[in-house]
Specification:
two-stranded antiparallel ribbon; 157 residues; alpha+beta
Length: 157
């Protein structure tokens, strides 16, 4: 008996442990491992508060609205494309805060991208035709940034 327990004791203990773990791991009820995992709800927190209302306020916030009045441009005249009064640039955010407007792309009448060659605050159309300008507005709220981009066409004479 002592010899049998000495040789097969480790194997017997292993079988007993696995026999107890198999129903826990492979079961489908509330007492099984998958049942226990399904019952546990995640609870993310920010300091000492639940972060769900904070995340909900960020997710429910709408992207900013942007409108620019396209107007006729004259060749040789310098324009500030970011001038809110000259181009009637209007930005509306969910919270009513001011948002930064920028020009991300400028295309000349020959469909050439001239963004790197142009300063939006000192833009001077050289060629006659249709210039396409992409405006971008970014709204930052609690570490999250939502953006809106719109393309507007301006005719230069």
């Amino acid at each position: 008996m002592k010899t049998m327990l000495g040789e097969y004791g480790k194997l017997i203990i292993l079988v007993i442990l696995l026999g107890g773990m198999i129903p826990l791991l492979m079961g489908t009820g509330k007492g099984s491992l998958t049942g226990m995992i399904k019952n546990v709800r995640p609870a993310a927190t920010l300091k000492d508060k639940d972060s769900y209302p904070l995340a909900e306020s960020i997710l429910s916030r709408k992207p900013p609205e942007l409108s620019v009045k396209a107007k006729k441009l004259y060749r040789g005249q310098v324009y500030n494309l970011l001038d809110a009064e000259a181009f009637l640039i209007k930005v509306k955010t969910d919270g009513g805060e001011a948002a930064k407007v920028s020009v991300t792309k400028v295309t000349d009448p020959k469909e050439k991208d001239i963004t790197k060659e142009v300063d939006p605050e000192k833009f001077m159309p050289v060629l006659p035709g249709k210039y396409r300008i992409v405006y971008r507005v970014a709204d930052s709220f609690l570490g999250s940034t939502k953006t809106t981009e719109k393309e507007y066409s301006f005719i230069a004479d």
